[in-house]
Amino acid sequence: MSKFETYFLMSSADVVEYAKEKLDLFATDAKLECAEIGDGNLNYVFRVRDPKTDTSVIIKQAGDTARISDDFKLSTERIKIESEVLQLEGKLAPGRVPDVYFYDGVMNCCAMEDLSDYVILRQALIEQQQFPLFADHITTFLVNTLLLTSDVVLEHKQKKQMVKKYINPELCEITEDLVYTEPYQDVRGRNELFSPNREWIEREIYGDTELHLEAAKCKFQFMNHAQALIHGDLHTGSVFIRLDDTKVIDPEFAFYGPMGYDIGNVIANLLFAWAHANAIDESRQQPGFLAWIEQTVVEVIDQFKEKFLKSWQENATDVMAKESGFATWYLSQVIEDTAAVTGLEMIRRIVGLAKVKDITSIEDVEQRINAERICLIAAKRLIKERATIRSGIDFLSVFKGRVSQ
């Protein structure tokens, strides 16, 4: 009788046994190595490797609470959503996600391609590495996974069935709390403010009632706009990258929501990388890195728009979606949502519970104060002025304090 017929949270030793029993990748007498490599907020991620053959696999398991806090009680079935979404995204955007080998509904885990020859984009950006192909790769992923899962392309009953299939209430609740509520109303006392910036944040974020109203509008947009199958957590920690390739991982937050949520997360986290590089001593700044980040922000928005309209022309099936001017109007709403989410993500990562290393690793107190304020001032404008933001240069201009005319 297998020990894996009843769910339990596995240790590294358990994962070695599991890999031998469940996968046909390894010889029965293989001396496997296993290390927990996950540093995320929710799940446990292990790398299993046979040093003799260099064959390896990633095994990811869900616990019944979030690693970030035991306050978040979660269904362990979220790995099922992640596995299914990765397989779907692999069909929609070939090569842009890791291969999934199988999903185990008893142990609530999945096995997938090991990307050890890639690096996590967040850490690479903190180290000021540049990736010239990133904007092209990520915009292809975004257009293909978002537009092609929307009513514009899918038969409407099929799309509604997908909405039902990918309902994800527990993970959505985390987003609703941490992104759209607690940075403005710290109802559970979980916010963590950088103490030298506390009074400024309390005045500029907690005390800005106009900002709160706009955040409330955005929250209900997020909860009620089942536009496309979104990744739901597409920050730079959810991207593995090499100079020649980009892979998106960790779509456990996936559900049917507004397209701009994914795009805005990408932009916000690129801006965090800019803020980190800008904050360190000039002698440690890599030549051209800040300019490359700025260019990439512009390219992500503008390439997304170009590819989106091209894909719309090629793939739209709804007869009303083909009405003259509708695609342009629809895209303008997506970019407006993107601007708002960019601001919301920047605020929640500085004010809320779940931080980003780009900001927290800034050692100089005055530089961190400045970096946080740069992000938060821009975030407020992106949210409040989102209806006026249309192009990549508009995003960059707001972030750098200049309004494009």
TrEMBL record:
Gene Ontology annotations of biological process type: methionine biosynthetic process
EC number: 2.7.1.100
Residues of the Aminoglycoside phosphotransferase domain: 188-285
Keyword Cell membrane: no
Pfam families, A to Z: APH
Any one GO molecular function term: ATP binding
InterPro entries: Aminoglycoside_PTrfase, Kinase-like_dom_sf, Methylthioribose_kinase
UniProt KW keywords: ATP-binding, Kinase, Nucleotide-binding, Transferase
Family of the protein in this entry: Belongs to the methylthioribose kinase family.
Subunit structure: Homodimer.
NCBIfam families found in the cross-reference section: MTRK
Record-given protein name: S-methyl-5-thioribose kinase
Protein source organism: Seinonella peptonophila
